[in-house]
Design brief:
Elements: E1 2-6, H1 12-25, E2 30-34, H2 42-50, E3 54-58, E4 64-67, H3 73-79, E5 83-86, H4 93-113, E6 117-121, H5 123-128, H6 134-143, E7 149-153, H7 159-164, E8 167-170
Parallel strand pairs: 1-7, 1-8, 2-3, 2-6, 4-5, 6-7
Length: 190
């Protein structure tokens, strides 16, 4: 089955981690591939050594990205030099190359491992920003063993992926403390 966790609400990665733990508890092999994340998130410390049946790989995040027109002037000022803004459809070449290299290595590991559960964390966002192509993700999905459960997380899931999904959960934000200026908190958001 193909599961999609998307939407603007908090909890997409957290839900995928919960499913990974459930799958491990059933004796399954789990591969957890994180797009656009460096090894800076608290859950990674646990996931790295949690079980020999869990493999974690990140594609790194050299910087935040946004397409032109996505951020207001106030948001641009707030982000300052922590964000790279690029013309739509023209993401930074070094970021694309880094993800392509990491994805190729991850794909070889995934196909060799034949996991029962494959989590592609934040792949929806990587696809949205054209940091990885639809063709690369479709190729991986086609080459997986039939019994592999796949979870794709992140905002802005593309329609082609939604169309082939067996389960879609949309996280909806009704209220978030970010709007009051609360930054990401260690152990809660990172």
């Amino acid at each position: 089955m193909l599961q999609i966790y998307t939407g603007k609400g908090k909890g997409k990665t957290t839900a995928a981690i919960g499913l990974a733990i459930r799958s491990l508890g059933a004796g399954h092999q789990v591969y957890f591939l994180q797009f656009m994340k460096s090894l800076a998130y608290s859950e990674q410390e646990v996931l790295k050594g949690f079980s020999p049946k869990l493999q974690l790989r990140t594609t790194g995040k050299p910087f935040f990205v946004a397409a032109e027109g996505m951020l207001s002037e106030e948001e641009k000022a707030q982000w300052g030099d922590k964000v790279v803004i690029f013309p739509p459809g023209q993401p930074p070449a070094d970021y694309v190359a880094m993800i392509a290299e990491e994805f190729a290595a991850a794909k070889a590991e995934i196909l060799g491992m034949k996991p029962d559960l494959l989590v592609l964390d934040e792949v929806n966002v990587a696809l949205f920003f054209d940091l990885i192509s639809r063709e690369k993700i479709e190729s991986l999905l086609k080459e997986l063993p039939a019994g592999t459960e796949v979870v794709c997380t992140g905002r802005n899931a593309p329609q082609w992926l939604l169309d082939r999904a067996d389960l879609i959960t949309e996280m909806q934000e009704l209220r978030h403390y970010y709007t009051k200026g609360v930054e990401a908190r260690k152990g809660i958001e990172n």
